[in-house]
Design a protein that fits this description.
The chain is built from 8 helices and 14 strands. The protein is of the alpha+beta class. The chain folds into 2 domains: 157 residues, HIT family, subunit A (2-Layer Sandwich), CATH 3.30.428; 161 residues, 2-Layer Sandwich (HIT family, subunit A). The chain has a 10-stranded antiparallel sheet, sandwiched between helices. Strands 2-1-6-5 form a 4-stranded antiparallel sheet, with no helix packed on it. The longest helix is centred in the last third of the chain and has 22 residues. It starts with a strand and ends in a 5-residue tail after the last helix. Bound molecules: zinc ion (2 copies).
């Protein structure tokens, strides 16, 4: 069983997940991404290769369009209760309560978001909303993160396009710190800091890649990585799971265009896509919820994996970005895309 571990500084938690276990020999050569369709557990016909299905979207032809299954090697999983204990009065351990799901984007083994029709991308977004809502029903799931790893270098072990959702019993310290800073900003100025970022970005324009369908796509002012991008809803919204049908349609379009720009400009680079949405706030007081909803703004971050974290970055936590976001935005704006 996995567990979460933290040292006395409380600035970093680690999920220790021995069932994903690797022996020394497993680390010697980089694991090959499984890419053959015959032995792909996410392809139609191989459904028995995944753990029992959690959810599926079925088309008019009765075939599935999107499937959700538990991760075969979960980082965290459902357990009767949350146990938190001190270890030797120095460390803290929490048992690995949570959830780890996989959303299979479509039955197509080789079609990524840029290749899929808009209707299919809308089904994927609908599934994200449903699963995030379901996971947030549990108060033990303090933090829920949806992400997509594309390409082996970005952490994908299966080539068939998919996303993952992990629910954890603790709020990661870096997330908590940003949340507290956002709350403090709101309390001082009575404005959402992310809305303020958007106002300034739109006024300046240099880092905007596109503004359409109710969303703003930009290269963040403090981009850590070359060609990092973020998609923000134009109007303030803290909770991704509350988006309307029209906003979902708009998001499908902007997501397809964004990932097409990336694919086109950088020849299908590996990337991580991360959905940042409001914390599970059912435990908060009404006043606390008001501050939380006014100071958080959901967004999607896209991080192309073009550089590697090296000694300086690991040691200091500071990133060296060789491509300023103003330049990245200019290149990304100029990509000719349709749709
Ligand atoms: Zn497949
Ligand atoms: Zn906002």
């Amino acid at each position: 069983m996995s567990e979460l571990r933290c040292g006395p500084f409380a600035d970093q938690w680690v999920i220790s997940a021995p069932e994903r276990g690797r022996r020394p020999s497993d680390y010697r050569r980089e694991e090959e991404e499984r890419s053959k369709e015959e032995d792909c557990p996410f392809c139609p016909g191989n459904e028995q290769m995944t753990p029992p299905e959690i959810y599926r979207v079925t088309g008019e032809d009765r075939r599935w369009r999107v499937r959700v299954v538990p991760n075969k090697f979960p980082a965290l999983q459902d357990q009767p209760r949350l146990d938190r204990e001190a270890v030797a009065d120095v460390f803290v351990r929490v048992n690995g309560v949570g959830s780890h799901e996989v959303v299979i984007d479509s039955p197509e083994h080789r079609k990524e978001i840029p290749d899929l029709p808009l209707e299919q991308i809308e089904l994927i977004i609908d599934t994200y909303v449903l699963r995030l809502r379901a996971l947030m029903e549990k108060s033990a799931h303090r933090y829920v993160l949806l992400f997509k790893n594309h390409g082996k270098e970005a952490g994908a072990s299966l080539a068939h396009p998919h996303s993952q959702i992990i629910a954890a019993p603790i709020v990661p310290p870096a997330v908590e710190a940003r949340l507290q800073a956002a709350k403090a900003y709101y309390k001082k100025k009575r404005r959402c800091p992310f809305c303020d970022i958007l106002v300034e970005e739109i006024r300046c324009g240099e880092r905007i890649i596109e503004e359409a369908d109710g969303y703003v796509l930009l290269a963040p002012y403090d981009s850590r990585f070359p060609f990092e991008m973020a998609i923000y809803p134009r109007d303030h919204a803290h909770d991704f799971t509350a988006i309307t049908a029209e906003q979902r349609r708009g998001l499908a379009r902007v997501l397809k265009r964004t990932l097409s720009r990336l694919k086109c400009l950088l020849e299908d680079p590996p990337y991580n896509l991360i959905l940042q949405t409001a914390l599970n706030s059912r435990e908060e007081t009404t006043a606390g919820q008001k501050v939380l909803s006014s100071s958080s703004h959901w967004r999607i971050e896209i991080i192309p994996r073009l550089t590697r974290m090296a000694g300086f970055e690991w040691g200091s936590g500071l990133h060296i970005n060789p491509t300023p976001p103003e330049e990245a935005a200019r290149y990304l704006r100029e990509v000719a895309i349709t749709g």
